[in-house]
Amino acid sequence: MIAAMANLLEYDIYDLELASVNDNTDLRKLLIETSSKSIIVIEDIDCSLDLTGQRKEKQEDDKDNKKDPIKEMEKMTKKKGSEVTLSGLLNFIDGLWSACGSERLVVFTTNHIEKLDPALIRRGRMDKHIEMSYCCFETFKVLAKNYLDVETHELFATIGRMLGETDMTPADVAECLMPKSDEEDAEVCLKKLIRCLEDAKEAARVKAQEEARVKAEEGNKVGKDGEKEQASDA
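and the corresponding C-alpha cells:
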C-alpha cells in the first residue's frame, strides 16, 4: 500500500529504523536530510523502541527517592542502545523540527496499537488510522478478479462461508489464487484456496484446544498450591 501511495503521488520513500538512531539529535538530522514530497515509514513502531512506558517509568523513578544500585545498572545498560525519546519522536512528526520541509507523509505500522502512547496516535497527529484486517468476501472478489479475471463462480459461495469462519490475510489468499503454471485455471486455484482455508481452520481449532488445555492445567496448579498453603497453615 505504501508503494502504491508513493507511485500515485510520485513521492520518495524513506524507511526509518528507529533502533539504529542514536538520539534525538540524529533523528532531527535525518529529518532535515529527507526531501520534500516524501513518505517516511517507521515499521513495527511498537517493537522499534520502548516508547510506551517512558512516562510511567519516569513517574515511578520520581517517587523512588532511594536509589537501587541494581536498577541503576539496568538503566545504564538500556541507555547503551538508542536514546530517542517519545518527546523527540513527537517533535519529529509535527513539532518544530517537522517545519523544515513540506509535503511529507509519516506512516507507522504496528501489530499492537494498544501498546502505543495515546499522544503518538491521537487524531491530528496521526490523521488516518487504517486497519489491515483479515480477508473478507468483498476483498476476495477483488483478488479473484485481479489474479484470475473471474467475477463469479460456483465456488464463491463456499469460499465466502469459509472466510466468515476462518482468519486469513489477503496476502495468503492472493498466494493461493496466483496460478503457478499455465495448467492451473480459475477452478484449480479456487479449490486450492478452499483447501488452504480448511487447513487454517483446523490449525486454529488445534491451537484453541491447546490453549484451553494449558489454561486448565494452570488453573489446577493454582488450586493445588492453594490447598497446600491452607493445609500448612492448619
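(Above: one complete record from the training split.) The two ends are 65 Å apart (CA to CA).
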